[in-house]
Specification:
With 216 residues, the chain is an alpha+beta fold. 49% of the residues lie in helices and 18% in strands. The strands form two sheets. The protein has a four-stranded antiparallel β-sheet. Strands 6-5-7-8 form a four-stranded antiparallel β-sheet. Helix 1 runs antiparallel to helix 2 and helix 3 packs across helix 4. The N and C termini lie far apart (54 Å).
Length: 216
Amino acid sequence: MDFLIVFIRTLFFYFFIFVIYRIMGKREVGQLGIIDLIVSILIAELVVISIENYDKDIMYSIVPILTLVLLQVSLSFMSLRLPKFRIFLDGNPSVIVKNGKINYKEMIKQKYNLDDLMVQLREKGYRSIEEIEYAILENNGSLSIFAYPKDKKRTPLPLPLVLDSNIQSDTLKMLKKDEKWVMDALRKKGIVLEEVFYAFYKDNNIFVIKNRDLIE
């Protein structure tokens, strides 16, 4: 009888967790943010506890799991609406290699050592840093790599200036510019900040995607 209860609970939680993750949204394991990872670990622990302690009411696991899901969905919604809150939760991508040079200051800040960098370069088929023009440590810990073209001609990396009508101060520091410079550039294009969904800087130009340009 005990084995039957464990069997039934296992099947129940299999389909229950399947539905829960569909509610939370589609994301690959390697793309999980900190909040997603914490929620996933806690849900796994709660399920194991419920299956092992089959003499306890199953609601002792279902209630906290539903609470975690509600929390995760709420935080995701807030992250979409509040860019600064999203940055607080997920952080910003970090430029580890720029123009073929390692940014040791940023590596120390992110507690990312040279061995980590070399391992990820080798995994992506690169033998040395000399082949890399830009390497960006993403919020989920993965490394985005932009190699030099065959002619070794440097290509500027697009830098985000505005996200969801919010000016990116980190980019301005990198460019040694201020918010007035951004506002003046938008004004010349006949655009106000509130209209901007995404704007990036490349080749000494600012490229803008407006909210009305998005597909509804």
